[in-house]
Amino acid sequence: MTLKKPGSWTYSILKHAWHAIFFVCVLVCLEGCRNKTLKDYGHDVNAIKNEVKSRKIHRVSEKEFQQWTADKGSEISRIAQKYLNRAYNKGLETNQIASAKEFAKLLPLANIDSLAKTYQVDIQSISFERTQVDNLYAIEADYWKKYKSGETALEPTTEYVENRRKRVFIAPIYLKEAVGMWSIHFERQNVIQQIVKEREKKKKKKRRS
Question: Using omega within 30 degrees of 0 as the cis cutoff, is the peptide bond preceding 6 cis?
Fold first, then answer.
C-alpha cells in the first residue's frame, strides 16, 4: 500500500488510524495475558471483577451510617413496643400472667425474633429484675446502672461498641408498673448492605416516575 507524502491530509489521517489500531491491539493482548495468567494461577476472573464492583458498597458516609441506625433503632423499638403491649394485655386477659414482672420472664417473644430477622439485627431484652451486668457491653451496663440508681430517665440512645464494627441502639420498654430496656445490635456490614439496597430501590422508583 502506497501512502502520499507526509504533507498530505490523507497520510496524516491514516497515520493516526494505524496508531489507534496498534494501541487497541496491544491493550487487547495485555488484557488477554492478564486473564490467562490469573486463570493459570487458579483465580476466578469474573469473581474478581464482581468483588471489585461490590466494593462500591462501602461508599457510605459516617453521617449516613449513624443516621440510618438511629432511625431504624427508633422504628424497631416502636414496633417492638406494640408487640409487647399486645402480648402483655393478652397475658392479663387469659390469666397467663399477673404482672409485668412475670411477663418479663417470657422475653424474648417469637414476634420480636421475627422482627429482628426482618431488620437483620440482634434484639436483646435486658431483664427488668437484672442485678448483674457481666455479659453486657459497657454502654449497656452503664446505661442500666444509671437507670437503676435513678440518675437518668430511660431515653433512646445510640452508641458504638467493638471498635465501630457494631452499633447499639438502646430503647426503653414501658409496661405499666415495670420498666425495662431493649438493646438493638446493628452489625456494620449488614447496615451498609441495607443502605445500598435502599439506594437502588430509590433509583428504580425515579426511573419509573
Answer: no
Radius of gyration of the chain (CA): 30
Neighbours of 44 (CB within 10 A): 11
Phi and psi at 3, nearest 5°, equal -105, 150
Instruction: In whole angstroms, give the CA distance from residue 107 to residue 91.
Output: 13
Res 121: pLDDT: 92
Point out the residues of the chain with pLDDT beneath 50: 1, 3-4, 37-43, 57
Can the peptide bond before residue 108 be classed as cis, meaning omega within 30 degrees of 0? yes
Nearest CA to 108 out of 125, 133, 92 is that of: 125
The strand pairing partners of 182, in sequence order, are: 125, 171
pTM: 0.64
Which pLDDT score, from 0 to 100, does residue 117 have?
A: 92
Are 76 and 115 contacting, i.e. CB atoms less than 8 angstroms apart?
A: yes
